[in-house]
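haha ok so turns out i had the wrong file open the whole time. this is the CORRECT one, sorry everyone. sequence first:
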Amino acid sequence: MDYPAPRLLTDDESERDSIRTGESREIGEEVLQDLAPLALPELRSMVHEMSHANSVLKLEAAMFEKFFNRMEPRDLTGHLPPDRHGSSLDLGPAVYSRGRRKSKSRITADRLICLTVEQKCDLAQRELEETREDIQRMKENSERVLQNYLAALEEADIRVVDIKKAIVDFEKDIVNTITKKKGSIIASDKVLRYMEDKIRSRDVLKEKIRLKNDSLKVQKKKMQMQLRQKEELGEALHEVDFQQLKIENAQFLEKIEERNQDLLRQKMTVGNALQILNFYKRKLQTTTSMATRLVKDIAQRKESLEKIEREGILVEKERNKAELLNKRLRKQLTEYRVPPVLDYVHEKIAVHELENAIKIWERKVEIAQMALQSYRSVWQKAKLASHELQALLPEQVAR
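then structure:
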């Protein structure tokens, strides 16, 4: 096996290597001198910060490498002068001078040459667009594959239905006949005829599908010719038109977002207005109910007030009557003179005699009522006897 011969270093490369080794030694000494007075927690925090910065730089380097790999050769050399080679992004000069040693400040300036913020933003934007395009392509591919699978499933379902139908028809037309007529020539002829009919129907279906495919191919050729004619006439859309459409689409999306935000604000305003309206509706309802209740209460109070006024008039009349009676009684009381005691005794005796007379008369009335009852009983008996006598007299006269 032949190994490639080692490449000889040129004067520029050897000088560059020597400069780099010298720079690394000087930088290492400076770093050690700067880190010597620091404590262990400070060194740990510095290590943490440096690791974070290194991870960020690694991400940027990976993104730049992906961007560089995606670039076409014309992007690498087409936009540069003949004496320079590099990417479309201007990374700054990186040529080392010959014949002399660089100072520390020059070494630091060359070492810190990197992408600017605008270049990083441009690179990130282009990488984001590429990623979005990749995601869109993946979505389209996945949708295409999904549609293919769905079409295959639909075709399989149709074929399963056709097979089941063919099985049912075969069992109904052939199997039942063969089981009834075993060893019959008619059954075998029927099977052959069934197979020939199926083959003929498949041929007819195949011819229909072939004609449909031919018509679709003709339509495809027509569409391709029309597209080619449009491209020749310059009617086809170019990359600039797509970019313009993207910009317009972005503007319209911003307007739609603004309208959506405005609509959302209007909805919130309408919701707040509805809440306030419902609150005032409830308040109006309670107020109206309170007003009706107060109207009824006022009417009842008016009725009670009228009743009280009428009662007051009656009471006033009764009071006037009572005052008149009181005046009359007071007048009688002032004019009243106590009779002598002897009159009182005579009156008391008279009352006692009257009471005794009443008792005597009451006893006499009781005796008279008892005599009346006896007389009535006698009268009833006499009456009954006269009725019996009158009843007997007609009988005797009849005899």
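The two ends are 190 Å apart (CA to CA).
again sry for the mixup
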